[in-house]
Protein backbone atom coordinates (compact mmCIF):
# COMPACT_ATOMS: atom_id res chain seq x y z
CA UNK A 1 0.00 0.00 0.00
CA UNK A 2 1.40 3.37 -0.96
CA UNK A 3 1.71 6.27 1.47
CA UNK A 4 -1.15 8.15 -0.22
CA UNK A 5 -3.47 5.16 0.01
CA UNK A 6 -2.56 4.73 3.68
CA UNK A 7 -3.37 8.39 4.34
CA UNK A 8 -6.74 8.08 2.66
CA UNK A 9 -7.52 4.95 4.67
CA UNK A 10 -6.69 6.72 7.93
CA UNK A 11 -8.74 9.82 7.06
CA UNK A 12 -11.84 7.84 6.06
CA UNK A 13 -13.06 7.17 9.63
CA UNK A 14 -12.44 10.82 10.53
CA UNK A 15 -14.45 12.02 7.52
CA UNK A 16 -17.31 9.63 8.32
CA UNK A 17 -17.37 10.84 11.93
CA UNK A 18 -17.43 14.46 10.79
CA UNK A 19 -20.37 13.74 8.50
CA UNK A 20 -22.26 12.06 11.36
CA UNK A 21 -21.54 15.04 13.61
CA UNK A 22 -22.89 17.44 11.00
CA UNK A 23 -25.98 15.27 10.51
CA UNK A 24 -26.69 15.25 14.25
CA UNK A 25 -26.17 19.00 14.37
CA UNK A 26 -28.66 19.57 11.58
CA UNK A 27 -31.11 17.15 13.20
CA UNK A 28 -30.87 18.82 16.61
CA UNK A 29 -31.24 22.26 15.02
CA UNK A 30 -34.32 21.08 13.13
CA UNK A 31 -35.85 19.66 16.31
CA UNK A 32 -35.27 22.90 18.23
CA UNK A 33 -36.74 25.00 15.42
CA UNK A 34 -39.71 22.62 15.15
CA UNK A 35 -40.41 22.87 18.89
CA UNK A 36 -40.22 26.68 18.75
CA UNK A 37 -42.53 26.84 15.74
CA UNK A 38 -45.03 24.55 17.47
CA UNK A 39 -44.85 26.60 20.69
CA UNK A 40 -45.51 29.84 18.80
CA UNK A 41 -47.95 28.79 16.10
CA UNK A 42 -49.62 25.85 17.83
CA UNK A 43 -51.78 28.01 20.14
CA UNK A 44 -52.56 30.35 17.23
CA UNK A 45 -53.71 27.45 15.08
CA UNK A 46 -55.86 26.13 17.93
CA UNK A 47 -57.37 29.58 18.40
CA UNK A 48 -58.17 29.86 14.68
CA UNK A 49 -59.86 26.45 14.74
CA UNK A 50 -61.99 27.38 17.75
CA UNK A 51 -62.98 30.65 16.03
CA UNK A 52 -64.67 28.73 13.19
CA UNK A 53 -65.92 25.74 15.20
CA UNK A 54 -69.62 25.32 15.88
CA UNK A 55 -69.00 22.22 18.00
CA UNK A 56 -65.79 20.45 19.00
CA UNK A 57 -65.44 17.80 21.65
CA UNK A 58 -63.24 14.89 22.66
CA UNK A 59 -62.00 12.62 21.09
CA UNK A 60 -62.24 14.49 17.75
CA UNK A 61 -58.98 16.07 16.63
CA UNK A 62 -60.78 18.71 14.53
CA UNK A 63 -64.09 20.54 14.96
CA UNK A 64 -67.15 18.39 14.40
CA UNK A 65 -69.19 21.25 12.95
CA UNK A 66 -67.81 24.32 11.20
CA UNK A 67 -69.50 27.71 10.92
CA UNK A 68 -69.41 31.46 11.62
CA UNK A 69 -72.46 31.83 13.84
CA UNK A 70 -70.32 32.82 16.82
CA UNK A 71 -68.78 35.64 14.77
CA UNK A 72 -72.31 36.90 14.14
CA UNK A 73 -73.01 36.78 17.89
CA UNK A 74 -69.83 38.74 18.65
CA UNK A 75 -70.39 41.48 16.08
CA UNK A 76 -74.12 41.97 16.48
CA UNK A 77 -74.87 45.61 17.46
CA UNK A 78 -76.47 44.74 20.79
CA UNK A 79 -73.67 42.33 21.77
CA UNK A 80 -71.22 42.86 24.61
CA UNK A 81 -68.22 42.63 22.29
CA UNK A 82 -68.86 45.90 20.47
CA UNK A 83 -69.40 47.81 23.70
CA UNK A 84 -66.29 46.22 25.20
CA UNK A 85 -64.26 47.04 22.08
CA UNK A 86 -65.42 50.66 22.17
CA UNK A 87 -64.49 50.89 25.87
CA UNK A 88 -61.07 49.35 25.21
CA UNK A 89 -60.29 51.76 22.38
CA UNK A 90 -61.52 54.79 24.32
CA UNK A 91 -59.49 53.86 27.40
CA UNK A 92 -56.39 53.13 25.29
CA UNK A 93 -56.65 56.50 23.49
CA UNK A 94 -57.09 58.40 26.76
CA UNK A 95 -54.14 56.52 28.23
CA UNK A 96 -51.97 57.51 25.27
CA UNK A 97 -52.91 61.18 25.69
CA UNK A 98 -52.12 61.20 29.42
CA UNK A 99 -48.86 59.26 28.95
CA UNK A 100 -47.61 61.56 26.19
CA UNK A 101 -48.55 64.64 28.21
CA UNK A 102 -46.11 63.36 30.85
CA UNK A 103 -43.56 61.58 28.64
CA UNK A 104 -42.77 64.37 26.14
CA UNK A 105 -41.63 67.00 28.69
CA UNK A 106 -40.11 64.32 30.94
CA UNK A 107 -38.27 62.69 28.04
CA UNK A 108 -36.93 66.03 26.82
CA UNK A 109 -35.75 67.00 30.30
CA UNK A 110 -34.10 63.63 30.89
CA UNK A 111 -32.39 63.69 27.49
CA UNK A 112 -31.40 67.34 27.24
CA UNK A 113 -30.98 68.59 30.81
CA UNK A 114 -28.42 67.66 33.47
CA UNK A 115 -30.90 66.48 36.06
CA UNK A 116 -29.72 65.18 39.42
CA UNK A 117 -30.50 61.50 40.07
CA UNK A 118 -31.37 61.02 36.39
CA UNK A 119 -30.78 57.26 36.57
CA UNK A 120 -33.00 56.95 39.64
CA UNK A 121 -35.78 58.89 37.90
CA UNK A 122 -35.67 56.50 34.94
CA UNK A 123 -35.58 53.56 37.32
CA UNK A 124 -38.63 54.88 39.17
CA UNK A 125 -40.74 54.43 36.04
CA UNK A 126 -39.86 50.72 36.11
CA UNK A 127 -41.03 50.20 39.69
CA UNK A 128 -44.67 49.37 38.76
CA UNK A 129 -43.30 46.36 36.86
CA UNK A 130 -41.17 45.20 39.80
CA UNK A 131 -43.96 44.08 42.14
CA UNK A 132 -46.68 41.41 41.81
CA UNK A 133 -49.54 42.97 39.89
CA UNK A 134 -52.35 41.33 41.86
CA UNK A 135 -51.08 42.53 45.24
CA UNK A 136 -50.57 46.06 43.90
CA UNK A 137 -53.98 46.31 42.24
CA UNK A 138 -55.85 45.00 45.28
CA UNK A 139 -54.47 47.91 47.28
CA UNK A 140 -54.99 50.36 44.42
CA UNK A 141 -58.64 49.24 44.20
CA UNK A 142 -59.07 49.88 47.93
CA UNK A 143 -57.59 53.38 47.61
CA UNK A 144 -59.62 54.18 44.48
CA UNK A 145 -62.79 53.00 46.23
CA UNK A 146 -62.21 55.65 48.87
CA UNK A 147 -61.62 58.28 46.17
CA UNK A 148 -64.69 57.28 44.19
CA UNK A 149 -62.65 56.11 41.18
CA UNK A 150 -63.58 52.43 41.32
CA UNK A 151 -65.77 51.32 38.45
CA UNK A 152 -65.02 54.48 36.45
CA UNK A 153 -63.10 54.98 33.23
CA UNK A 154 -60.96 57.66 34.89
CA UNK A 155 -59.67 55.14 37.42
CA UNK A 156 -58.91 52.56 34.73
CA UNK A 157 -57.06 55.17 32.66
CA UNK A 158 -54.92 56.10 35.66
CA UNK A 159 -54.00 52.46 36.26
CA UNK A 160 -53.14 51.93 32.60
CA UNK A 161 -51.11 55.15 32.58
CA UNK A 162 -48.85 53.92 35.36
CA UNK A 163 -47.85 50.93 33.23
CA UNK A 164 -47.76 52.89 29.97
CA UNK A 165 -45.32 55.48 31.32
CA UNK A 166 -42.59 52.85 31.36
CA UNK A 167 -42.68 52.66 27.55
CA UNK A 168 -43.58 56.31 26.97
CA UNK A 169 -40.87 57.92 29.08
CA UNK A 170 -38.03 55.54 28.22
CA UNK A 171 -38.66 55.62 24.46
CA UNK A 172 -39.32 59.39 24.44
CA UNK A 173 -36.05 59.96 26.31
CA UNK A 174 -34.20 57.84 23.75
CA UNK A 175 -35.91 59.67 20.87
CA UNK A 176 -34.88 63.09 22.15
CA UNK A 177 -31.36 61.87 22.94
CA UNK A 178 -30.98 60.68 19.34
CA UNK A 179 -31.68 64.17 17.92
CA UNK A 180 -28.49 65.85 16.68
CA UNK A 181 -27.71 68.84 18.92
CA UNK A 182 -25.98 70.62 16.06
CA UNK A 183 -29.31 71.01 14.29
CA UNK A 184 -30.76 72.70 17.35
CA UNK A 185 -27.71 74.94 17.64
CA UNK A 186 -28.02 75.89 13.96
CA UNK A 187 -31.64 76.93 14.52
CA UNK A 188 -30.65 78.99 17.54
CA UNK A 189 -27.83 80.65 15.57
CA UNK A 190 -30.26 81.98 12.95
CA UNK A 191 -32.44 83.54 15.62
CA UNK A 192 -34.96 80.89 16.64
CA UNK A 193 -36.09 80.97 20.25
CA UNK A 194 -35.72 77.88 22.45
CA UNK A 195 -39.46 77.22 22.22
CA UNK A 196 -39.53 77.59 18.43
CA UNK A 197 -36.44 75.40 18.11
CA UNK A 198 -38.22 72.70 20.11
CA UNK A 199 -41.38 72.75 18.02
CA UNK A 200 -39.74 73.16 14.59
CA UNK A 201 -36.56 71.08 14.97
CA UNK A 202 -36.40 68.87 18.05
CA UNK A 203 -39.98 67.62 18.25
CA UNK A 204 -40.35 66.74 14.51
CA UNK A 205 -37.06 64.80 14.59
CA UNK A 206 -38.11 62.95 17.76
CA UNK A 207 -41.65 62.35 16.46
CA UNK A 208 -41.00 58.84 15.07
CA UNK A 209 -39.80 57.61 18.48
CA UNK A 210 -42.67 59.36 20.24
CA UNK A 211 -45.11 57.77 17.78
CA UNK A 212 -43.62 54.37 18.54
CA UNK A 213 -43.98 54.97 22.28
CA UNK A 214 -47.62 55.98 21.75
CA UNK A 215 -48.28 52.73 19.89
CA UNK A 216 -46.63 50.71 22.65
CA UNK A 217 -48.80 52.46 25.24
CA UNK A 218 -51.93 51.89 23.15
CA UNK A 219 -51.23 48.17 22.82
CA UNK A 220 -50.35 47.84 26.52
CA UNK A 221 -53.63 49.50 27.48
CA UNK A 222 -55.65 47.52 24.93
CA UNK A 223 -54.38 44.21 26.36
CA UNK A 224 -54.36 45.18 30.06
CA UNK A 225 -56.49 42.86 32.17
CA UNK A 226 -55.43 42.76 35.81
CA UNK A 227 -55.73 46.49 36.56
CA UNK A 228 -59.03 46.74 34.70
CA UNK A 229 -60.39 43.71 36.57
CA UNK A 230 -59.70 45.12 40.05
CA UNK A 231 -60.40 48.78 39.35
CA UNK A 232 -62.99 48.80 36.54
CA UNK A 233 -65.48 46.05 37.35
CA UNK A 234 -68.42 45.83 37.33
CA UNK A 235 -69.18 49.05 35.41
CA UNK A 236 -66.22 49.20 33.02
CA UNK A 237 -65.98 46.20 30.69
CA UNK A 238 -63.20 45.78 28.12
CA UNK A 239 -62.27 43.11 25.57
CA UNK A 240 -59.71 41.38 27.84
CA UNK A 241 -62.40 41.08 30.53
CA UNK A 242 -64.83 39.66 27.97
CA UNK A 243 -62.18 37.15 26.88
CA UNK A 244 -61.56 36.13 30.49
CA UNK A 245 -65.25 35.67 31.25
CA UNK A 246 -65.82 33.64 28.07
CA UNK A 247 -62.87 31.39 28.90
CA UNK A 248 -64.06 30.82 32.47
CA UNK A 249 -67.53 29.92 31.19
CA UNK A 250 -66.06 27.42 28.71
CA UNK A 251 -67.20 29.42 25.69
CA UNK A 252 -63.98 28.95 23.75
CA UNK A 253 -65.46 30.18 20.47
CA UNK A 254 -66.21 33.64 21.88
CA UNK A 255 -62.87 33.69 23.70
CA UNK A 256 -60.95 32.81 20.52
CA UNK A 257 -62.75 35.41 18.41
CA UNK A 258 -62.11 38.05 21.07
CA UNK A 259 -58.43 37.06 21.20
CA UNK A 260 -58.20 37.42 17.41
CA UNK A 261 -59.72 40.90 17.63
CA UNK A 262 -57.01 41.83 20.14
CA UNK A 263 -54.29 40.14 18.10
CA UNK A 264 -54.90 41.98 14.83
CA UNK A 265 -54.00 45.52 16.03
CA UNK A 266 -51.08 44.15 18.03
CA UNK A 267 -49.48 42.51 14.99
CA UNK A 268 -50.34 45.42 12.69
CA UNK A 269 -48.96 48.08 15.00
CA UNK A 270 -45.80 46.10 15.75
CA UNK A 271 -45.07 45.90 12.01
CA UNK A 272 -45.80 49.62 11.79
CA UNK A 273 -43.39 50.38 14.67
CA UNK A 274 -40.47 48.92 12.71
CA UNK A 275 -40.58 52.02 10.53
CA UNK A 276 -40.12 54.34 13.50
CA UNK A 277 -37.77 52.60 15.94
CA UNK A 278 -34.42 52.87 14.22
CA UNK A 279 -31.09 51.61 15.53
CA UNK A 280 -29.95 55.06 16.68
CA UNK A 281 -33.07 55.44 18.82
CA UNK A 282 -32.86 51.93 20.28
CA UNK A 283 -29.21 52.53 21.16
CA UNK A 284 -30.27 55.43 23.39
CA UNK A 285 -32.87 53.50 25.42
CA UNK A 286 -31.81 53.52 29.04
CA UNK A 287 -28.65 55.55 28.35
Describe it for me?
With 287 residues, the chain is mainly α. It has twelve helices and two strands. The chain has helices at residues 3-51, 69-75, 80-112, 118-124, 133-147, 153-177, 181-189, 194-223, 226-232, 239-248, 252-273, 279-282, and strands at 53-55, 65-66. It has a two-stranded antiparallel ribbon. The N and C termini lie far apart (69 Å). 31% of the residues are buried.
Compile the SSE list and pairings.
Blueprint (H helix, E strand, L loop, with lengths): L2 H49 L1 E3 L9 E2 L2 H7 L4 H33 L5 H7 L8 H15 L5 H25 L3 H9 L4 H30 L2 H7 L6 H10 L3 H22 L5 H4 L5
Antiparallel strand pairs: 1-2
Helix pairs in contact: 1-11, 2-11, 3-6, 3-8, 5-9, 6-8, 6-9, 7-8, 8-11, 10-11
Share in helix: over 70%
Contiguous runs where pLDDT drops below 50 for at least 5 residues:
4-9
Question: CATH homologous superfamily of the largest domain?
Answer: MetI-like
Q: Can you count the helices?
A: 12
CATH class of the largest domain: Mainly Alpha
CATH topology of the largest domain: MetI-like fold
The count of β-strands is 2
From the N-terminal CA to the C-terminal CA, the straight-line distance is 69 Å
